[in-house]
């Protein structure tokens, strides 16, 4: 079941009709709980590639999940369902970010970030299909939004913003042609970030333009370029701090580039976590 997802916002329409909460058909708490247990597990599964090793997504009937979600919405619990969905997406991404930020070296960070990002793009498609009815009715008509945008924003706020300084460091090394491990994987990250959101250009406009063939710059490119310059200033200020990390957990054991470069990456990632987004 393929459902096309769009980024454009549309004004609420009146073609959909919802069953009032006090309707005779309203879903009971027990019914909702039973449905949500199945749905929430699948959402977590879709967001976590590590769980898919033992629980492949194809083992679960997407059609059955869609049907359960459809009837839950039709019987008046679409608001609760959307709220619970956003919460489980947030909680799962927070957990994934904890794993990412515990990386002990540059190679580990690159591989973890690439895996989380790539899987999140797949999850957007999978969950967009399963939640198609909720997306095209309640999310669109009541919130004037769409599930893809919700999932992209969740990734940006929870994962990307926490990794800005690390990515700044990594992308600079690539654009400077500094020998660095997993260079091709880093280019995959650039492509996936742009695929997820063109606003990701702010992390290094020059690198995005050099990696992505035939790239079409978004209308807000100048704003993104200015944002990059501001972030670059912050990055350079962080490099001015003491090279020794203030957080022992940020210690880098592997030396994939020079010792000074690893310390710069180390200090940048740790300082970013201290000052927050």
Automatic annotation (TrEMBL):
Residues 60-197 form the Cullin N-terminal domain. One of its GO terms (molecular function) is protein kinase binding. Residues 242-277 are annotated as: Disordered. GO terms for biological process: G1/S transition of mitotic cell cycle; ubiquitin-dependent protein catabolic process. InterPro entries: CACUL1, Cullin_N, Cullin_repeat-like_dom_sf. It comes from the Eukaryota. Belongs to the cullin family. This is 2765_t:CDS:1. It comes from Paraglomus brasilianum. The lineage of its organism: Eukaryota, Fungi, Fungi incertae sedis, Mucoromycota, Glomeromycotina.
């Amino acid at each position: 079941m393929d459902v096309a997802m769009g980024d454009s916002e549309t004004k609420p329409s009146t073609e959909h009709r919802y069953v009032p909460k006090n309707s005779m058909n309203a879903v009971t708490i027990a019914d909702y709980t039973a449905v949500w247990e199945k749905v929430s597990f699948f959402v977590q599964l879709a967001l976590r590639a590590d769980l898919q090793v033992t629980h492949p997504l194809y083992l679960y009937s997407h059609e059955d999940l869609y049907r359960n979600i459809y009837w839950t919405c039709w019987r008046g619990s679409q608001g609760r369902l959307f709220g619970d969905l956003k919460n489980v997406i947030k909680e799962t991404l927070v957990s994934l970010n904890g794993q990412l930020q515990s990386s002990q070296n540059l190679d580990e960070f690159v591989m973890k970030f690439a895996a989380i990002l790539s899987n999140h793009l797949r999850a957007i498609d999978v969950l967009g299909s399963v939640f198609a009815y909720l997306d095209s009715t309640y999310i669109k008509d009541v919130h004037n939004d769409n599930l893809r945008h919700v999932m992209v924003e969740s990734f940006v706020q929870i994962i990307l913003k926490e990794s800005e300084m690390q990515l700044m460091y990594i992308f600079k090394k690539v654009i400077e042609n500094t020998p660095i491990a997993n260079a091709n994987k880093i280019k995959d990250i650039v492509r996936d970030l742009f695929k997820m959101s063109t606003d990701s250009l702010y992390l290094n406009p020059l690198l995005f333009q050099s990696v992505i063939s035939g790239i079409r710059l978004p209308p807000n490119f100048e704003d993104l370029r200015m944002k990059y310059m501001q972030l670059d200033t912050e990055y350079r200020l962080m490099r001015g701090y003491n090279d020794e990390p203030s957080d022992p957990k940020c210690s880098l054991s592997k030396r994939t580039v020079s010792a000074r470069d690893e310390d710069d990456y180390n200090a940048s990632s740790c300082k970013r976590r201290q000052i927050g987004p």
